[in-house]
Every structure is written in structure tokens, then in C-alpha cells.
Amino acid sequence: MAVKGPKDRGPLPPRVDPQAPDTTPREAPRLDATRWPGALAPKDHDAPGHDALLGEGQIGDPSVTPDALMQMGSLVRARHLMTLLARRRGQIERDALVAEVGDLLLALDPAEARRLLFTMTQAGRIVDVYPLEVFDYVHRRRALADVEYGPIVKNKDDLEGRAFTPDDVIRLELAALAVRLQALALEGGPTPGYCLAPGPPGRYHLQFDAPGTFSLLLRAQIRKKTRLERLRIRVEDAESPR
After folding, report:
1. Contact 29, 70 (CB under 8 A)
2. How many CA atoms lie within 13 Å of 134's alpha carbon, on the beta-carbon side?
3. Which residues lie below 8 Å from residue 210, measured CB to CB, with a gap of 6+?
4. What is the number of helices (H) and of strands (E) in the chain?
5. Which tens digits make up the pLDDT trace of 10-61?
6. Contact at 8 Å (CB) between 112 and 123?
7. Is 216 in contact with 231 (CB distance < 8 Å)?
8. pTM (two decimals)
């Protein structure tokens, strides 16, 4: 007896794995602009912080006027001022540069000028001119709110009456435990190399790498007031007579 094979029914359909995800292409859903007004509007200017970054292309441009500075974003203004202090140092004298940036701030609303003076230090690297020197320039010409000149270092008279060597650790005793030292500037642009570090409560340690007579400008916070003070330190070679 002849045996017949299975009837040819053509290729079998592909096997479907019930666990496999469905990858059938589908048309993407469209937003209904009538239900969500503005949903299809461009978002280029809606990113967080966009307004705060306006004017980045003008950072460091000495032609920026007070009005143009105020058109910059809030995060850009302080960066612009710090970049000016760095770039312009090789173009004009140091005192003239302090005056240039200081006068730009004096032309602003006092509250905004004060805000910028307190934020400049965090907005860029100090190359030569300290933001605290600009702070002092502005305050001497237009008193800043809650800023005063007064004692910060309790042993100031003792320190100014002595001579130190580069090996000495100079101990600054603060006027009160409530005093918080916030900034220091070496006025006039000397570059001896120095280290300022906190010590026990109410004390800071200061050390210079090279001899010289240095005028320090200090800024501290005491309760809700900001205080400024100058301190003169004399550092001599170890072989020099005291």
C-alpha cells in the first residue's frame, strides 16, 4: 500500500511569543491644542534660568553701561564685573580699574549694587584686584545698608606694633565670638603668598611667605551687620633686626 505524505499547505506563520512586547509601528499621538493652549508653543525661552543668563556674550566687555549691565541676567552681572577686574588689569592702572568697576556699581540702584558686591567673590577667580577693594571704594562714596567700619581684630594694636618673619604664625584674635570673618584683601596688589586659616573659636591664623609691609582689608559679619577694618602687618627677613 502506498503511503501518502502530509499535504503541502505552504509556509507556516511565524510563531508568536506571548511574552514578547508588541513592536508594531504606530502613529505617535498628537496633542490637541484646543484642550491644552500653548502646548505646541516653542520652549526655547522657557528653560529654567534662561532670564538669569541673559547677556553672557557681553561678559568682560568694558563698553557695557550701567543700563546694559541691568539688562544682563542676575547670574551674569557679577561674572561680568569679576571678568572686568581680570581682563582690564593689564590695560589700565590698578587704582583706575577699582574706580572703573566701582563707578559702574555706584550708577546702579543701591540695593542691586549691594547684592552684587556681596556675590562677586563667588562669581569668578581673583586675579589681582580683590572684590573687597571695590566694596570699600563704593562704601566710602555711598554708604551701603548695614555696613560699617569697626573693630574686627581684638589684638590689632599688638599686631601692628610687632614685626614678624615668614616662619611666624600670626594669630588674629576676633573682637567677639559672634564675629564671622568673611573676606580678606591685600590692598595695592602685593603677591607675597599667604595662608589664612581658622583656628580655635574666635581666632584665625595668618602666615606670609615673603617679607613686606601689608595693608589688609577685612570684612566680617557680626549679627546682622557687615563690618570693615584695616590691619597693617610687617613681615621681615628672619635675619633682620626686630
Report:
1. no
2. 30
3. 166, 192, 193, 235
4. 6, 8
5. 555 555 555 555 555 555 444 444 444 443 444 444 444 555 556 788 999 9
6. no
7. yes
8. 0.76
